[in-house]
Design brief:
Largest sheet: 6 strands, mixed
Oligomer: single chain
Order of helices and strands: EHEEHHEEHEEHEEEEHHEEHEEHEEHHH
Number of domains: 2
CATH architecture of the largest domain: 3-Layer(bba) Sandwich
Strand content: 15-25%
């Protein structure tokens, strides 16, 4: 049987390759690292997690992301299985030891007899004899390929900037000021390290963020919008002095054991590896220059002697105007042999990217067997995302989107507000199960 080619070994490409091979179809997975490196990756492993180590909420009843987790598990997801094997404490969220996770995914794919991994860049459009291709090159698509794809579809690139949060060594945190606690004691109740600020400290911190020297943009990058879900902390600070207190630094549900006073703001650190030696700064994506990050973040109470394993950074992400150029099978209308998956399609987040890889892998494998698959119902998380990026969104204003219940059709029956999300999740899983019987 002729192989399917998957270009890109991130979360979407890895999941797509797994789904294809699991359906008895040979697949060649192309990953350009380490032959060609990117500005954001630091390893050669497949499915490397760049921005953070969190898959976000694992609550399948009340949260659309958690629902998507469960739908992926129901579809034999490689990414979800590896995440489960390497999860670390994170309250109600699913977070992983990112190095162990990506090494697990890499070894699993390398061991599959129907998967061939080829290292090297696919420059430009794939060869004409590749009749079934998934492009899962993500937000860091190489210039040669992205230019060729965009020339083919006739659309200018849409782009946004994605910021990365710093990671620090736990042993350098001052636990005479820091304490363990999850907000409202969720999860195990002590999954995060917390650093409190009083009003004076917080106001000085905001001033430092406003005054700090930032990364300079090239002229063509200056008008590129940020994605709201990954906003640099200093950009949030520019929106108003209280913005961070109602965002990543909100103090609610947290109380220091060192004082009975209410906190003005709280910085949270989340475990980044299974050993518990590394922690990342939650919501602290940044475009501050390295020296400024060290200077400013060490003023946070408890981080005066902080040692950083990795400082924050910024990279340019590219995505297609998918509602205009993709069909419901995630194929490019101008060249149907090409499917697209992951962040290049305009979904945002690790989970959403992997989910689109799963779906395109299923579509492509079924096509290779001579069949077709109707996309999952729009009432499911899978279906809601596919619908959004292939026509549900307005092509004129299309921007990357995380999965959320706003993408789902409303319930047919009237339901109390607190019961709506559980009811939508229940409907989704029931209809996913019914859809699976048609495969």
């Amino acid at each position: 049987m002729k192989p399917i080619h998957v270009i890109g070994g991130g979360l979407a490409g890895s999941e797509a390759a797994w789904q294809i091979a699991s359906r008895g179809v040979p697949v060649i997975l192309h990953e350009m690292r380490p032959v060609r490196k990117t500005d954001a990756h630091s390893t050669e492993s497949l499915a490397e997690m760049v921005c953070s180590n969190s898959f976000r909420s694992d609550d399948a009843v009340n949260n659309a992301v958690g629902l998507l987790h469960e739908e992926m598990r129901q579809m034999n997801s490689l990414i979800m299985a590896a995440a489960e094997r390497h999860k670390v404490p994170a309250g109600s969220a699913l977070a992983v030891d990112r190095d162990a996770f990506s090494e697990d995914v890499t070894k699993t794919l390398e061991a599959h007899e129907l998967i061939t991994i080829e290292r090297g860049e696919i420059a430009g459009l794939p060869p004409a004899d590749w009749d079934n291709v998934i492009v899962a090159t993500g937000p860091l698509t190489s210039p040669a390929l992205s230019e060729a794809v965009l020339d083919l579809c006739g659309e200018d690139a849409l782009a946004f900037f994605d910021a990365i949060a710093p990671i620090l060594h736990k042993e350098s945190i001052d636990f005479e000021k820091a304490w363990y606690q999850s907000r409202y004691d969720k999860g195990d109740g002590a999954d995060y390290i917390n650093l409190a600020m009083n009003k004076e400290q917080y106001e000085a911190f905001i001033q430092d963020l406003n005054d700090g020297e930032k990364t300079d943009f090239k002229e063509w990058e200056e008008n590129t919008p940020y994605f709201e879900g990954c906003m640099p902390i200093e950009v949030m600070a520019e929106r108003g002095p209280e913005t961070l207190r109602f965002g990543p630094m909100k103090p609610v549900g947290l109380q220091s054991p060192f004082t009975d006073e209410k906190h003005h703001a709280v910085v949270q650190l989340r475990q980044d590896n299974k050993l518990g030696t590394l922690y990342n700064m939650v919501g602290f994506q940044t475009k501050l220059k390295y020296g400024e990050q060290t200077r400013i973040f060490k003023k946070i109470p408890g981080l005066e002697s902080a040692q950083f394993a990795r400082l924050g950074g910024l990279h340019r992400n590219t995505f297609l105007n998918s509602p205009l150029v993709l069909d419901a099978q995630m194929r490019m209308k101008a060249d149907p042999r090409l499917r697209f998956a992951g962040q290049i399609t305009g979904v945002e987040g690790y989970v959403e990217s992997a989910a689109m890889g799963l779906m395109t892998g299923l579509f492509a494998a079924t096509e290779r067997h001579g069949g077709t698959v109707t996309p999952p119902p729009v009432t499911t998380a899978f279906g809601a995302l596919i619908n959004h990026i292939t026509g549900g969104a307005d092509a004129k204003t299309f921007q990357p989107m995380n999965v959320n219940f706003g993408l789902f059709p409303p319930l047919e029956q009237r339901t109390k507000k607190k019961e709506r999300k559980p009811a939508m999740s229940k409907r989704a899983l029931e209809q996913l199960a019914e859809w699976k019987t048609t495969l």
